[in-house]
Amino acid sequence: MFNLESLLRENIKRLVPYSSARDEFKGQASVFLDANENAFGSPLPVNYNRYPDPMQWPLKYKLADIKGVPPQNIFLGNGSDEPIDLLYRAFCNPGGRDNVVLCPPTYGMYEVSAHINDVTIRKVSLTSEFQLDIEGLQQAIDENTKLVFICSPNNPTGNSINRSDIELLLNNFDGIVVIDEAYINFSRQKSFIQELTEYPNLVVLQTLSKAWGLAGLRVGMAFAGEDIINVFNKVKPPYNISQATQELALQALDNVARVNEWIREVVVERDLLSAGLEQLPQVLKVYPSDANFILVQTTDAKGIYQYLTERGIVVRDRSKVELCMGCLRITVGTPAENVQLLDALKSFNLKTETSVSA
Ligand SMILES: *Cc1c(COP(=O)(O)O)cnc(C)c1O
């Protein structure tokens, strides 16, 4: 049985959270002398002299509307990195007592954040189809496993993880299943955020950094049952989302139609780019993608990477990553950028052909 209290670290259970000036007075007033702010204003065209809403309610209400999830089921962080770190800090005793299960190849922050928090990592590699190894997971998970991270669509492979496998895990694991849906907007698969009432052990991560085009603002979202959201709120720094970020994100969220149009364009471009890449002799395999990037297995990842950077084009070399031998990860760009990439790759062939014949 899932029991949040028994999963929490003792120090977090006992923790008396910081109570800010904004927490202690919530009524109407005109003279605010409670937070040691600069009452005169800010040396800017716009004033930022007041501390922001620690709970970001207006932003959460608007997101709730867009996502179809109650605002009390939303946590906002300084990027997705913040909820990832908070999960370790709240649930995993450091120094070898508790463990987290990761499924490489996947997003690197789960591992880095575990190391920062001194949490033991158990790795269960994805299968050659980049799907969950259910038997391996069964063997790796024990009574000290607090978290399992699943990235779907997965970075860097681009595929979605089979829904039935994730459901099996949600139904049979009494720790927390974190599903990272950073790329869900580009996916054919359905999000898990409508399943929060079904699974008390579910945390879904999303972000404004990818489809929403706001990577520079740093807004990550965690969706979960209210009890888990309360844990996040207890542990987070009081003012973790700045006033400027809250205002800009609110403004951005008025443009859902624009973002949806971009998503359709990216998906069209992704399929064109995949088809173009498949034509190239130095490309061995183009993996199917449910994201805004494509994993491509090549004959010479390092050489192609180098060649492209000399032409001012940067892709991600993933050839040293488990199960990704020879692979580059390529983000879908604008139509012009994708043509530029394909043209550069075509002349890479000419180069190798001439060098072979010479
Ligand atoms: C890009 C990405 C994120 C987003 O991180 P932010 O900190 O919100 O920018 C999260 N998870 C995965 C798998 C990603 O690739």
TrEMBL record:
Gene Ontology terms, MF aspect: histidinol-phosphate transaminase activity; pyridoxal phosphate binding
Aminotransferase class I/classII large domain segment(s): 48-345
Q: Which keywords fit this entry according to its UniProt record?
A: Amino-acid biosynthesis, Aminotransferase, Histidine biosynthesis, Pyridoxal phosphate, Transferase
Quote the EC number.
2.6.1.9
Task: Supply the Pfam families for this chain.
Answer: Aminotran_1_2
Task: Name the Gene3D superfamilies on file.
Answer: Aspartate Aminotransferase, domain 1, Type I PLP-dependent aspartate aminotransferase-like (Major domain)
List the InterPro entries hit by this protein, alphabetically. Answer: Aminotrans_II_pyridoxalP_BS (IPR001917), Aminotransferase_I/II_large (IPR004839), HisP_aminotrans (IPR005861), PyrdxlP-dep_Trfase (IPR015424), PyrdxlP-dep_Trfase_major (IPR015421), PyrdxlP-dep_Trfase_small (IPR015422)
User: Has keyword Amino-acid biosynthesis?
Assistant: yes
| Cofactors, names only | pyridoxal 5'-phosphate
Annotated pathway: Amino-acid biosynthesis; L-histidine biosynthesis; L-histidine from 5-phospho-alpha-D-ribose 1-diphosphate: step 7/9; Lipid metabolism
Positions carrying N6-(pyridoxal phosphate)lysine? K210
Known catalytic reactions: L-histidinol phosphate + 2-oxoglutarate = 3-(imidazol-4-yl)-2-oxopropyl phosphate + L-glutamate
**One BP term from GO:** L-histidine biosynthetic process
What binding partners and quaternary form does the record give? Homodimer.
Family per record: Belongs to the class-II pyridoxal-phosphate-dependent aminotransferase family. Histidinol-phosphate aminotransferase subfamily.
Cross-referenced NCBIfam families: hisC (TIGR01141)
What is this protein's record name?
A: Histidinol-phosphate aminotransferase
Q: Which organism is it from?
A: Chitinophaga eiseniae
